[in-house]
Amino acid sequence: MGLFLVAGAVSLTALPDPPGIPDSAASAEIPFRIGERFEFRAMYNSFVTGNVNAGEAVLEVREQAGNAGNQSVIQFVGAVNTTGLFNRFYRVENRYESHYDHEARKPLRFSEQVREGSYRRNYDVSFDYETMQARSVREATETTRETTEIPVQVQDMLSAFYYARSFDMDTLQPGDAIGIDLFMHDTVYVSRILYEGREQITTSMGTFNTLKFRPEVLEGPVFSQPYPMTIWISDDKNRMPVRIESGLVVGRARLDLTGFRRLRYPVESFVTGSRRR
Q1: How many folded domains does the chain comprise?
Q2: Closest CA to 163 of 30, 3, 19, 17
């Protein structure tokens, strides 16, 4: 259920300027606010199982606890949990947190608690922009500490999603790309999000006008998709995730938006149906 990797399949300073998206393309206004929450249904499809409900996922923006001294720091929280029959053979309870300076648009700290079947991992990383280093602590069967050099505008796998939403997408043309430097598990990945055009997507909430993107990772001299993924975000100022699909070793996984609240802007991408807030 590693679909929150979608939050960061992107890169900026390690890439040449992608066509149509210069480094200064981030909007002056962020498209989210404290209290924003997205709810998703997770589905799995394979030749053996067909299309089955696998679980639920949540993304939300919270006020940073004890934040009186620095009002620019907020918290992103993501969670993925299996439900029903999936819990009988492979239970997943994953939680991700990113502490984010929304004025500087940089993460300060990222943590994850992964519970997948019998596998357990706790991971915590802090970003030091004076020394340009990330310092992490990984706990699985033992505690491992690492120090990694980072670029100026690095993002973690959760903050990258919110950072990418702040880009001006009104002038995008199919074939343009958005880049972000992604830090994940003690490695900085050079990646990009390729824009493929506009498309209408129908979910249980109804039909939305969306922008379609495909994340890619730099492997050697070319970009590729080791785990093919497609992202559809609403074609309005909220840039909310409507659908996420990812190829797995066996079968495919999909997240569909089922609910939202406290959006910053009106939902102008909605076409028809019974949307739920």
Answers
A1: 1
A2: 30
Per DSSP, the three-state class of 166 is coil
| pLDDT at 59 (0 to 100) | 97
The Cα–Cα gap between 39 and 157 comes to: 18
As a whole number, mean pLDDT of residues 79-100 equals 90
Q: What is the pTM for the complete model shown?
A: 0.84
User: Do residues 90 and 116 make contact, with C-beta atoms less than 8 angstroms apart?
Assistant: yes
Q: What values do phi and psi take at 86, rounded to 5?
A: -60, -30
SS3 164: helix
Strands 206-219, 187-203: pairing kind: antiparallel
Range of the domain at 95: 3-272
DSSP E strand boundaries for 9-153 = 37-46, 50-63, 73-82, 93-101, 106-116, 119-128, 133-139, 143-149
pLDDT above 90 (res 36): yes
Q: What is the pLDDT of residue 33?
A: 94
Beta strands in 65-118 (DSSP E): 73-82, 93-101, 106-116
